[in-house]
Specification:
- Pfam families: Amino_oxidase.
- Belongs to the flavin monoamine oxidase family.
- Strands 1, 2, 9, 10, 11, 12, 13 and 19 form an 8-stranded mixed β-sheet that branches. The protein has a 7-stranded mixed β-sheet with strand order 7-6-15-16-17-14-18.
- The chain has 14 helices and 19 strands.
- Among the domains are: about 170 residues, 3-Layer(bba) Sandwich (FAD/NAD(P)-binding domain); about 90 residues, Polyamine Oxidase, Chain A, domain 2, CATH 3.90.660.
- It has about 450 residues and is α/β, with parallel strands linked by helices.
- Helix 1 packs parallel to helix 10, helix 1 runs parallel beside helix 14 and helix 3 packs across helix 7.
- Bound molecules: flavin-adenine dinucleotide (FAD).
- The site of flavin-adenine dinucleotide has 42 residues, from helix 1 and helix 14.
């Protein structure tokens, strides 16, 4: 290569290189190929799917990353429709038991109807202004008041509402889970936007986060999208540097291999960008966003318990390490599989079965934990954060991360206008980046 983007013959290897084969990358690759472009996908891992990951536990398929999906997530739903994927319903509805672990460790055994009513009341109050603040949720910064409120933390807003103990604790557990950090850090309007996206309706929102999975698994859906791209895909291809010049881009892998193209679409999780060398460096605005905006310290864990606990749900308020403990499957022979979501994995070692069992027994006193299936996203070097959550003051800056820089286009769920903590946001961002690419190719100047 003599100059960024040119091989010795002067021909770039590809029209576009997509970095990352999660949902954002798979969709961007397919859309670029549909435009007639020659596309290469470079993925650091030896699998596709990124922050969606399917495993098996006790003979069942489990989603260790992004899983909850809903038809109010239009980009993802369109993909499910296109490739013929339906919805698989997780237990959640018709709970036998509901629990609330308060911040001091006390556990309330709450009748499920009361739990639902109080939690929904808290949610309604927290998001009471969602329609007013986000009349068009896909243009989330149109209302100038959102920009001002971005400096307000979820904690500050929650404590201004005069809620009762159960309402405040359940809502704080939910917000800790979403923020992946203490709620004093989470941007208040960034969370309210999700309520607006769920048609300004609390029940629909709750269904959208916990109730439905992709039947057949997220992996199969991601595979279907990527197969449709008919792109060259290289797994185990960790991009170490990205150089752009007048003629194109050159991406160099950790192995030393180099590929050139006219443009690159980057879909890296935000916190991973500092591990890639950019020449010239990324803009100061982007670098500030990368350093400051995201904070999610989350992880996911499945637990097999000998006893049949029935259909249960527990919220655990910060600083208890598990924020949500939900029955995933149960029966007389199986016992119970619990799915646990943690906003703050650093509060516990999720690979330590004794520590996990002790925590479970605070809610389910006699539970005998037989085995666990943890995955720690915050410690995964190709993720570093779990889902994308915005620190207060940084939600209003997300467009800095999405903005193209020369021949580099940026996708990934954190850059989405809509469901930024979700698979839907990843799909949305891949479509947007491909649209930007089309504009670039039509008018390269
Ligand atoms: C535990 C957990 C629970 C979640 N729950 C939900 C949920 O219920 N519902 C929902 O919709 N969403 C959920 N999410 C969020 C959702 O999974 C993500 O928003 C979405 O999958 C992100 O997709 P992406 O393509 O933007 O990024 P990613 O999926 O992270 O894709 C980025 C890709 O880039 C690759 N990469 C990184 N560095 C390099 C490099 N140097 N070179 C080449 N490749 C590289 C990574 O390996 C990865 O494959 C959850 C996420 C987690 C972790």
């Amino acid at each position: 290569m003599s100059e960024a983007g040119h091989s010795a013959s002067g021909e770039a290897d590809y029209d576009a290189i997509v970095v990352g084969a999660g949902f954002a990358g798979a969709v961007a690759a397919r859309e670029l190929a549909a435009q007639g472009r020659r596309v290469l996908v470079l993925e650091a891992r030896d699998r596709i799917g990124g922050r969606t990951m399917v495993g098996t536990f006790m003979g069942r398929r489990i989603e260790l990353g992004g899983a909850g999906v809903h038809w109010v997530q239009p980009h993802l739903f369109a993909e499910m429709q296109r490739y013929g994927f339906g919805f698989h319903e997780a237990p959640l509805a018709n709970l036998d038991k509901a629990y609330m672990m308060l911040s001091d460790g006390r556990v309330l055994d709450v009748p499920p109807d009361t739990f639902d009513r109080e939690y929904n009341a808290a949610f309604d109050r927290f998001c009471a202004r969602s329609r007013e603040l986000f009349p068009r949720p896909y243009a989330p910064l149109d209302n100038p008041e959102v920009l001002a409120l971005d400096a307000v933390s979820a904690h500050e807003h929650l404590h201004s509402l005069g809620l009762n103990e159960l309402q405040r604790a359940s809502m704080n557990a939910e917000l800790t889970l979403y923020g992946g950090a203490p709620t004093t850090e989470l941007s208040y309007p960034s969370f309210v936007k999700f309520h607006a996206l769920a048609s300004w309706d609390t029940y629909t929102f709750t269904d959208s986060e916990k109730r439905y999975h992709v039947a057949g698994g997220t992996h199969a859906l991601c595979e279907a999208i990527l197969a449709d791209a008919r792109a060259d895909v290289r797994l185990g291809a960790e991009v170490a540097s990205v150089a752009q010049g007048e003629a194109g881009v050159v991406l160099t892998l950790a192995s030393g291999a180099r590929f050139s193209a006219s443009i690159a679409v980057l879909t890296l999780p935000t916190k991973v960008y500092p591990d890639v060398a950019f020449e010239p460096p990324l803009s100061a605005e982007k670098q500030r966003f990368i350093e400051n905006a995201e904070m999610c310290d989350g992880a996911e864990l499945y637990v097999h318990v000998r006893q049949n606990l029935g259909n249960t749900f527990a919220f655990c308020d910060d600083p208890n390490p598990f924020n949500a403990i939900q029955t995933f499957a149960y029966g007389p022979e199986l016992g119970t599989l619990l799915k646990i979501t943690l906003g703050r994995q650093s509060l516990i070692d999720i690979e330590d079965i004794d520590a996990v069992a002790a925590e479970i027994r605070k809610v389910h006193h006699d539970a005998e934990v037989l085995s666990i299936a943890p995955y720690n996203w915050a410690r995964d070097r190709f993720t570093k954060t779990a889902w994308s959550s915005y620190r207060k003051g940084w939600f209003s800056q997300y467009k800095a991360m999405a903005a193209p820089e020369g021949r580099l286009l940026f996708a990934g769920s954190a850059t989405a206008d809509g469901w930024h903590e979700y698979i839907d946001g990843a799909v949305e961002s891949g479509i947007r980046a491909a649209r930007e690419a089309r504009r670039f190719f039509e008018n390269p100047g």
